[in-house]
Amino acid sequence: MDFATVNQELFRFLDRSPNAFFAVRNMCEKLDRAGMVRLFEGRPWTLEAGKGYYVTRNDSALIAFRIPRADYTGFQIMASHCDSPVFKIKANAEITVDDRYVKLNVEKYGGMLCAPWLDRPLSVAGRIMVRTSEGIETKLVNVDRSLLIIPNLAIHMNREVNDGYSYNAQVDMLPLFCEKGEEEDVFLQMIAAEAGVNAEDILDTDLFLYNRMPAERLGLRGEFIASGRLDDLQCAFASLQGFLAARPGDSVAVHCVFDNEEVGSGSKQGAAGTFLSDTLRRINRVMGRTEEDYLMSIASSFLVSADNAHAVHPNLTDKADPTNRPYLNQGIVIKYSANQKYTTDAVSGAIMRAICRQADVPCQTFTNRSDLLGGSTLGNISQSQVSLNTVDIGLPQLAMHSPYETAGAKDTAYLAEAARVLFSSSVEGTGDGNYRLKF
Q: Which residue ranges does the chain devote to CATH 2.30.250.10?
């Protein structure tokens, strides 16, 4: 495997994707270059066997699919998410301090590590809604320069900070923007100038902070990578790479990227929404198949929920389970949870191991310590909309939910190859618990 080339492409994707809107736009551009046809949910669909298509929802979720033939067996799906814990900028964002400073009013999105956001260059990206002569238009905005900082308080004024500190999001985490001048609403004026519109035409915004530090390789031999948003753009990128390299045979290959996983997935563009089920049912109907055909195809389908996993921490090894201990660069992590926070069971775990074996990539196992609560992901949430055999996997990483995370330099390529095999294969149900795998 050409690990170096995969990482170079991953870094370009990460650096150009400061949040979900840009990640989806960048994936759309790659799909366009690959000859995929864009569809829109509000327009009629015409589908042909042998072609590839994609559709977006809310500009922050995407589903791409390839139909190998009209009488396809089922759907081979990899689902990831493109949002990350971050600070969202509130309306009426400017707060003046002592008639000297201007800071921005922000709120937390998702469960984050607060401390790493301090004392590093930040900027702003997202979307704005602009008034036009015909209605409303969306524009993406990225202030591509170091603009903001959240300054720490000097240790002389908080001598107990190294003994533990509880960060108050309304007090401690507001970024410094500029010195106070004569103008009003300078933040919105700046955003308007970046977008090439008039400030009075901006009707609303979805704007977020992001870490300006670029993705890097590090370690003595370059064996590690570090970047913002590895959770979960690393999986989304690998899934797309595998999708574009795949040659589907009997099943429809489906690359799916949701938004809002970090806040529970309960949105129209999240895994609890109808985006996936609407798309699969629409493929079935437009291809001239019946409801019975759809239900049969779901029974012969497989979903890989791909969301990064906790690696053993080099300084805190006792936080990992005693016998299931994932490490960086040791391959795809299959995640298990007795309480179904992860969907993996013996059936889906066995299918995923067969895919990894066919792809000739390593895999390892994650479970939480029995006395520690872990997180959940989109796999079990999506089951409320499309119920099918599902495995939860991820790539091993450190510092999850930090604005700058660490992972292994080999693991992205491992998942891309496993995704290629998944999207090229089919899983045919031959009776409950029995499956014929075709690679």
A: 86-211
Task: Just give the CATH number of 3-84+228-438.
Answer: 3.40.630.10
Structure tokens, 197: 């519109």
> Cα-flanking dihedrals φ and ψ of residue 163, to 5°?
-95, 5
Residue owning tokens 């003046």: 96
- Cα separation, 93 vs 105, in Å, equals 5
Task: Name 395's Cβ contacts closer than 8 Å, sequence gap at least 6.
Answer: 230, 234, 235, 238, 308, 309, 332, 333, 407, 408, 411, 412, 414, 415
Fold topology of 86-211: Aminopeptidase i, Domain 2 (2.30.250)
| Side chain identity, residue 367 | T
For every residue of 413-435, DSSP letters joined together read HHHHHHHHHHHH-EEEEEETTEE
Q: What does DSSP say about strands 52-57 and 37-39: parallel, antiparallel, or unpaired? A: parallel
pLDDT tens-place string over residues 178-225 = 999 888 899 999 999 999 999 999 999 999 999 999 999 999 999 999
Indicate the helix (H) or strand (E) that contains 407.
strand 405-408
pTM of the model: 0.96
